[in-house]
Amino acid sequence: MAPRADGRLNHDLLPDEKGPQDACGVFGVWAPGEEVAKLTYFGLYALQHRGQESAGIATSNGQQLLVYKDMGLVSQVFDETALNALQGHIAIGHARYSTTGASNWENAQPTLGATAAGTVALGHNGNLTNTAELVELVAERYGSQRRGELARGNTTDTALITALLAGDPDHTLEATALEVLPRLRGAFSLVFMDERTLYAARDPQGVRPLVLGRLERGWVVASETPALDIVGASYVREVEPGEFIAIDADGLRSVKFATAQRAGCVFEYVYLARPDTTIAGRSVHAARVEMGRRLAVEHPVEADLVIPVPESGTPAAVGYAQQSGIPFGQGLTKNAYVGRTFIQPSQTLRQLGIRLKLNPLREVIRGKRLVVVDDSIVRGNTQRALIRMLREAGAAEVHVRISSPPVKWPCFYGIDFASRAELIANGLSAAEIGASLGADSLGYISEAALIEATEQPASQLCTACFSGRYPIELPPADRLGKHLLEQNELPLGAPEDGLVSITPGAGGSTALDHP
């Protein structure tokens, strides 16, 4: 049997050079009479860019929840046989990039847990900042023994939410959720379900996107609007910050569990979201083109050709060319089929690793003064290698333009940047960074111009990775971190006996029943 891929498809151009890693993608559907597992599969396919480590789908037929999840891309995890086994009228799906907890099968989503009246399956996009506090809350409410997914080695903040939703015999899942949600801090766009109802919730800041759509015979919730498009759902509205939604046979119910204090992630506009997404009424593609125009105003240069670093730099490069009057061209060609190679190249080949994904079009760039447009710089190694490659291909000058401000601060709300010590903009000026990269000049868009391009009020955006201003209060450093739940000193206690039985099946499928 061929080995399964590990799913670590990425946009990074150099081996071991990690750029800003995407948040997760979530999808949920309530649609009697429809093939909800297949709708969810295609919804996740549209959200694959948000997480490439693992994928999973849970369905309910009104009596039982079934989950199928595994490491890998959506197209690697699921086939017709798996999807046909996932029968029902409710489904949720998740495509994961790990922001809390390691990348392994135990941490794949949706997570499962027992509730007072049945079972809950949950998918989470974002990252909680009060994880340590929630660990203590779980221990206080349910004793020292680990429950549910926590007992089976799950080390994510999602497993903590699932454990807290267990509730007690006197409360429904809906009532328990309305008690638990106000206690969560950080970024969370949630889809979850029990045997009869689909739920969705979004944190009061609305850090990560979440939208609501209508099918002819049902409802859809998803991280981004293209997931609605792909399944033929019409866009209704955003799930509001601080809103909890329940969808069942009686229709859709909405409750505000917290006052909205909007602080949407500005990096969704820069890089994370698909260009064909609309966030808060603004087309992401249009915002990126406008970023390029404003970049040309703030950092003009005499040049012969504007080229993007594909694909993320393309809309901003179009805008830069339109504003500056410098012709736009494709100076780099990208191999669309390269994800992660399982053949380890020699050190010599590793140093040339950027050519696995990008190669210069020499006849286009030879002798030209180039403006090279990219979305961001993290460590700088990729841009350094790219500039060297363009010069070797005959470029006369290389002027780098970046459609986001310098990334100087880590994100605690669902983007996995390099550590602050590794960020090249931490402690260096733009001129010094440009010299370090080997560029003839380097220009970053200003924070003010970036915000103007989004057409959102500055007061309703999170710019922490650029400014260090965190809109959601952070706990002490020793109570933060991706691997916090893997630390033995936290009061998670020992694994419990019984409560629910989980039986892994072929390809990572899971059925959950009460014993």
From TrEMBL:
It is an enzyme of class 2 (transferase). It catalyses: 5-phospho-beta-D-ribosylamine + L-glutamate + diphosphate = 5-phospho-alpha-D-ribose 1-diphosphate + L-glutamine + H2O. The keyword Glycosyltransferase applies. PROSITE patterns: GATASE_TYPE_2. Residues 24-250 form the Glutamine amidotransferase type-2 domain. [4Fe-4S] cluster binds at C265, C411, C462, C465. It comes from Cellulomonas gilvus (strain ATCC 13127 / NRRL B-14078) (Cellvibrio gilvus). This is Amidophosphoribosyltransferase.
